Amino acid sequence: MSELYFIDSHCHVDAADFDEDREAMLARAQAAGVRELIVVGASGSIEQARSTVAFAASHPNMYATVGIHPHEAEKVEDSWWPELCALAAQPEVVAVGETGLDFYYDSSPREIQKRRFRDHIELAAKLDKPLICHIRDAHPEAIEILEDHAAGRVKTIIHCFTGSPVEARKYTELGFYISFSGIVTFKGKATRQVRESVSCVPHKQLLIETDCPYLAPVPERGKRNEPAFLINTAQIVANEAGLSLEALAAITVANTRVVFGLTSG
Q1: Tell me, what's the pLDDT at 264?
Q2: pLDDT score for 44
Q3: How far is residue 238 from each of residues 173, 190, 252, measured CA to CA in Å?
Q4: Of 11, 17, 190, 233, which is the most exposed, with the fewest CB atoms less than 10 Å away?
Q5: What is the mean pLDDT of residues 210-229?
Q6: How many whole angstroms separate alpha carbon 129 and alpha carbon 260?
Q7: What is the pLDDT of residue 190?
Q8: What strand order describes the sheet that includes 93-102?
Q9: Do residues 149 and 117 lie in contact, with contact meaning Cβ atoms separated by under 8 Å?
């Protein structure tokens, strides 16, 4: 097997979960072939957004994003939204988000989630940067908003895909990218549709991620997730996509570079 090269298209390696062993964790990622990281801001405060940008800027081969997670949509203060927009405009910030709709937890009122989702779409369009979407138990509503406001305007990533093959086809017909996380490795009826969705995604729209420290893939499930575990997700996605692991790595790296506008690492 040739040496593999992966990009983790969605991770939170600046999280406090890694405070005790962050440098060792990053070394394990490199040893596993995970060479570049998209460090995703999911802020509930402007301080957290600033911290994510500063963290990514201080490490080689890392890129920041900033946005408001739907869980936090109600916490957004009008006084700091302009600063978040200014942070998003910085050249080291490669995307807007994660943003979106989460009707499973309903941590913020649904109408506020929808309003903030539309705000992020408009910001991404204004900055000509891609949009990272968190969608859980809200695919029909998200598709309606994205079809009306993002399709044809904004490069869009449906991160940590949790939908069905029908929904995967709809997103890809709109030109969006779909990213698969460790969920694709889980066993059981609830996650079978996620695995079955892989074959519905054109190779040119396929991404992989860890979403660490969450959602560690089998056989690491139950542990704190980290970028080195991306190989486990990649193997399942490769199998379902009818690709070798080497081909899957090359395709997803190329797609990640295209959607986020990255130069070669």
Answers
A1: 66
A2: 80
A3: 21, 21, 10
A4: 190
A5: 98
A6: 8
A7: 82
A8: 6-11, 34-40, 62-66, 93-102, 131-136, 156-159, 177-180, 206-208
A9: no
Q: What is the mean pLDDT of residues 91-100?
A: 97
Q: Check residue 220 and give its pLDDT.
A: 98
CA dist 142 → 72, 86, 250 (Å) = 17, 26, 30
Q: What is the C-alpha separation between 171 and 218, in angstroms, rounded?
A: 26
Residue 226 scores a pLDDT above 60? yes
Instruction: Check whether 1 has a pLDDT greater than 50.
Output: no
Write down the residue that tokens 């080497």 correspond to: 246
- Amino acid identity for residue 133 in this structure: C
Lookup: tokens for 66: 């900033």
Residue 252 in tokens: 């997803």
Nearest to 96 by CA among 69, 132, 64: 132
Exposure string for 108-117, b = 16+ CB within 10 A, e = fewer: beeeebbebb
Which residues, 6+ apart, have CB-to-CB distance to 105 below 8 Å? 71, 136
Q: Residue 98: is the preceding peptide bond cis (ω within 30°)?
A: yes
Return the pLDDT at 189: 87
In contact, 212 and 233? CB cutoff 8 Å: no
Percentage of the chain surpassing pLDDT 90? 93
Which one-letter DSSP state was computed for residue 9?
Answer: E
